[in-house]
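Q: Hi! First time doing this. I have a protein sequence and I read that you can turn it into a structure. Is that right? Here it is:
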Amino acid sequence: MRTLTVSGHIDPNTTFRVRPFPNTAHPFVSLEVEGTDITISLLASTGSANALRSLAAAAAEAATTLDTLTADTGTQAADHG
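A: Yes, that's right. Below is the predicted 3D structure, encoded as structure tokens:
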């Protein structure tokens, strides 16, 4: 990861898209996280597939944790979108 810090809220309407860029010399993919007013693009080049898998695993863990927190309180998580 390079130097940039971004903060945002993922809400139920957030969309995710993968765009491949099959450049012969330097292929990469863009993972886009799109909300109402902002799109964040993560660019992953050759050799970073394991980092993307780690991101996916962390996102799955965060979702499970959120489900647990919601179940513990007996309420739905508030929509801050």
